[in-house]
Amino acid sequence: QVQLVESGGGLVQAGGSLRLSCAVSGRTFNTYAMAWFRQVPGKEREFVACINRGGSSTYYGDSVKDRFSISRDNAKNTMYLQMNSLKPEDTAVYLCASKRTVYDAVMYARSSDYDYWGQGTQVTVSS
């Protein structure tokens, strides 16, 4: 099965920056649409950002647009989330997800669309 492992989480002050990574196993990473979600206990999983399999198209949730940037390096089987101007309300467990697709242009913003998930990495933003 496909394995996804997030890293880069930690404690940061409000206004600071953090870069998350998601390493994906296998030899077919360039066939996966990818996304970042975040989850806080007691709340529904929230869409953060997604990217098409070639990395040419991206889409962001309203709460993070203009602050976060999603990218991928298919040669390294890795997806990234650059988080700037962090706010306390960004505190959450951040999870990466993948979905196999035969179409390069497609992206997904529903958590139910994704087939494989990492275990998550904690991001805590202090005030």
If helices are DSSP runs of H or I spanning 4 or more residues, what is the number of helices? 0
The mean pLDDT is 97
Strand content: over 45%
Classification by helices and strands = mainly beta
Runs with pLDDT <50, length 5+?
A: none
**What is the approximate shape?**
globular
Question: Roughly how much helix do the residues carry, as a percent range?
Answer: under 10%
Task: Please state the CA-atom Rg, rounded to the nearest Å.
Answer: 14 Å
Summarize the structure.
With 127 residues, the chain is mostly beta strands. It is built from no helices and eleven strands.
Give the tags.
11 strands; four-stranded antiparallel sheet; seven-stranded mixed sheet; 127 residues
Can you put this structure into words, describing what you see?
The structure is a single chain. The relative contact order is 0.32. Helix content is 0%, strand content 48%. It is mostly beta strands. The chain starts with a strand and ends with a strand. The radius of gyration is 14 Å and the shape is globular.
Write the layout of secondary structure elements.
Elements: E1 4-7, E2 10-13, E3 18-24, E4 32-39, E5 46-51, E6 58-60, E7 68-73, E8 78-83, E9 92-100, E10 116-117, E11 121-126
Parallel strand pairs: 2-11
Antiparallel strand pairs: 1-3, 3-8, 4-5, 4-9, 5-6, 7-8, 9-10, 9-11
